[in-house]
Amino acid sequence: MTATEWLALAGITGTLAGTALGAWISWRIHSANLVHEERTRFHAQRLEVYAKYLAAVNAQVARFSVGAGWDLEQGAEILRQFGVLQLVATVPVTIAATDVHAVAHKIVSGAVTDRTALIQGFNSAAASVLTEMRKELGVGPIPQMQKSAA
After folding, report:
1. Is there a single domain that holds both residue 74 and residue 131?
2. Domain count of the chain?
3. Residues 127, 59 share a domain
4. pLDDT, tens only, 77-117
5. Does residue 31 share a domain with residue 77?
6. Would residue 149 count as lying in a domain?
7. 20, 93, 116, 130: which could form a disulfide with 89 (CB 3.0–4.6 Å)?
8. Which residues contact 137 (CB under 8 A, 6 or more apart)?
9. pTM recorded for the entire structure
10. 3-state helix, strand, coil in the chain (%, to 5)
């Protein structure tokens, strides 16, 4: 083979290798974008649903904690938001929200024997669901309150 043929072969090989490398890099970038898109696809909807669900459940438990009756509209809102939450949330959030929802169910069904224990259980479950929601939304842990030195 002559030097010109070797040079042509090297040029063709380099072109093919460059094309293959470019395609591989493009594929990697596209894969990373798909993973990011899948993780953040429902971010705005999740934030809205989580806020509405927590507001509805907190309002109902607050009514219960002061001895007020069950508010039917608020109960319907809890059910509506819980249903939407189950559609857009990840498994850890859904599991934690189910624990919160169980407290609301106990209140509605009248299966409460110890109001204080139920409220403490709700507070614990609400803290767990909030932690999972913040993880899912990429917000980070709940900041700890600093005690003032007085």
Report:
1. yes
2. 2
3. yes
4. 888 999 999 998 889 999 999 999 988 888 777 777 788 88
5. no
6. no
7. 93
8. 43, 46, 47, 50
9. 0.68
10. 80, 0, 20
